[in-house]
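Protein modeling request. Please complete all fields; requests missing the sequence field cannot be processed.
Requester role: graduate student
Desired output: 3D structure, token encoding
Chains: 1
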Amino acid sequence: MFRDLRTVVSPWRRWVAIGLLLTAGVLAVSVLGDGHGYPVLVRARELVFWALGCYLGIRVFTHVLLDPLLSHWRTSTPGFARDLVVVALYLGAAIFLLHRSVGVNLGTLMSTGAIAAAVVGLSMQETLGNLFAGISMSLSPAFRVDDWVEVTGNLRGSSGQENFIGRVDAMTWRTVQIITENGDTTILPNRIIAQAVVTNLYAPSGLHRRTFKVVIAPHDAMAATLAALEQALGGIPHYPNRKPEVRTHSFDMGGVVLELRFWALGFRHGRAANYQAVRLTQTVLNRLEVPLLGPHGPTPTWTDPVVLRDGAMEDILERFGLPREWAPELKEGVVLRRAEPGEGVIREGDPGASLFLVMAGTLQAVKAVERFEPYTGLFWEVIGELGQGAWFGEGSLLTGAPRRATVVAVTACELVEVPKAAFERVLRSAPHLVEGLVELKESRSGHLSDLTRTANRRDLARAEIKRWFGL
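Delivered output (471 residues):
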């Protein structure tokens, strides 16, 4: 693994080493003195003096000017751009010392150096190719350290195209070090990277859309299938303005191609979201008895129907202050649902007109937050727990207001959904029972102060509920 020696050697050890070097140089100059008439000693003294001056000048230049300018670059550790500049400075200093102290002619040196450079260049074509490719990538970085990239091209000298995905761990003057999802370390020469197609799968600047497609059998309830899939995919961590979508894309193999779209923050978040989306898609389609289509025909479906537990309707009527004898009539309008772990039940901001009762399992009310552990991505932050016997969604049922939170299943759940239509029938026969709904709405507004719970507020709530139910 590439390591930055500046992170291995402590600062005080570096300063001690520099101090010892300067002390040795000063001692050398003082011991040599004025040379005592010996030209060799005089030249040695001048060589040591100018060498110390060049060294101090380069150190001051790198620490005062070069390092601050390159500090915002994330190209390597410590950065081959810096190394190249420092090497060039030391080469220039060496030529200056040869000319100053030894009297080497610069013209002769340059002509001789050009011939030597040509010979070295021919013998080090690959190394120089890596060097200049690294310089090019450093000056115009398409990716940086910690970015996830997909490299496609002739990577190992074979005739076919290869590709692999990994995280950029380091960039040096010769190679790019990439760590795959499996933790394997791959080191690619810079010239290979420069000749390949590199897709930056993760730039920390924002969200990236991911898609995948499935082929299903055509059927009459396609709109309901799309809505159910979108609702289920709401369990993928997302911002309210970046909800997962499902669209009919095209036709293939005698079926309808669905394109599922969702937004990811970071490559690993996108990969995890893709796995979750595939699982939820298969679960929902099987639950709706919609077969997937493949080369060998439709896949069989099977689902275990949800059974309404005894007393569930009576509990709902009691919570709403409605007569228990209306249970049979209300039961005809409810919908029994399942939810698998990670499946979205309601999504923040969606229009809603139903209430949910939890018969079995656990759910959570959540909101999306950005985190960097265990990887960069969107994660759910829990704002409430919903267990057996809990109910939610009454705000949308009573007033038609958009959903105020996203609810995701944590375990396998069985739910009773009571839509608006089921309540309309019973409320039309007894409009006075609206007062119970007003009281329910007020009791569920626990975040409001007593001062706001005025008679005027109750009147507004009563009018809103009546308008919504057409009373």
